[in-house]
Amino acid sequence: MLELRDGSCYPKAMVGVNVGLACVDGVVAVLAFCQLMRIHSRNSHLGWTRQKVFHLMIGSSNLGYFFYFVLSLVAACKGWLCWSNSCGFIVMAFPKILFVAAFLLLLSFWVDLCHQSNDDDEDEGYSPREALLEKRRADSNTNGCRRCFSFLAIRTGSRQKVVILVTIIVFAIMIACAVLIWIGMGKNPIDSEVVAQVYVDLFAVAVLLLGGALACYGLVLFLKMRKVRSERASSEMWKVAGLAIVSVVCFTSSALVTISTNIPLIYHWHQEEIDGVYTSLLLVLYYFIGSSVPSAFVLWMMRELPPLLVTNREQESRTITFIRDDLVTVHPQSWTSATSMSNQVSRASPI
Question: Which are the contacts of 229, defined by CB distance < 8 A and separation ≥ 6?
Fold first, then answer.
């Protein structure tokens, strides 16, 4: 897919697209990490909340893509042999796994909310409206050492544990494929290119299914929230609808490009020829539309900072939140209306 120009570097159109994509992902990563620090500065004593985890995963994914695009240009011009095999495959696959894992977590929370009334008795009071990693309550006796190792005290829901397990398994499969690709460089029956192609095709099918699942559960939540008459519910309703639509459009386009072309394997440059302009458009469709746009959209939906909390004063949220977990003060007037509408959604709805 690559016609060598000026030695061993990419065509000018592809160089420009790679630089542009690297800049976009770099900006998204910086915004995600900056917002993460701002959020943490306002509620550091709560530990890892859902909002923080999403910012961390999206920031890490886009940072990985930034390094991938930069290293792709350097490897193409320098002629790195390892990059065209297992090294390029790992750097390509790693940020994609983090990206999909973030949206799997989003799906797990939506599933929790849709089936919350059925799971309340089984989970012994655990509610999905809590943070992904349960908010640690402020304790005056908590010492500095315990805060440094807050990950040891985290608690997750059953569906979030499944997401973590699936992510670990996918990472293991990716490493196994990378090893097979490396072995295939020698004289043996293993075809490195086939191994990589099978991996990206199967991953594309998984992404397509993820987009469909987000659309289905997004529709269910949208219909449930339409029954709740409140300004907050209306705002969250359109956030869910927007996320579902963006996920379907972006994930479908990304999966179709993967299945119909070998754009994800563009790092395997030395064996292929390419039309610079055509391939550049496919790169934009696959990476910008398929990854950068959904990442930026989620960050935009979660842009609101949590309120500053007064020490030794704990207030539990009674507001519908589907992608944020702020603590808000509920006035007596809204409590009456919220309570009367709780039966319209579900017994355990976060209202």
Answer: 337, 341
pTM for the whole structure: 0.77
pLDDT digits (tens, 9 = 90+) for 182-198: 988 777 888 888 999 99
Residue 68 has pLDDT above 80, yes or no: yes
Radius of gyration in angstroms for the set of CA atoms belonging to the chain, rounded to a whole number: 22
CA-nearest of 192, 208, 199 to 256 is 208
**In 10 A of CB 347, how many CB atoms?**
10
Contact indicator for 120, 348 with CB cutoff of 8 Å? yes
Task: Please answer whether residues 214 and 110 qualify as being in contact, where contact means their C-beta atoms are separated by less than 8 angstroms.
Answer: yes
Distance CA 276, CA 284 (A): 12
- Cα–Cα distance measured from residue 304 to residue 290, given in angstroms and rounded to the nearest whole number: 24
Handedness of CA 203, 205, 211, 216 (dihedral sign): negative
Handedness of CA 91, 26, 23, 249 (dihedral sign): positive
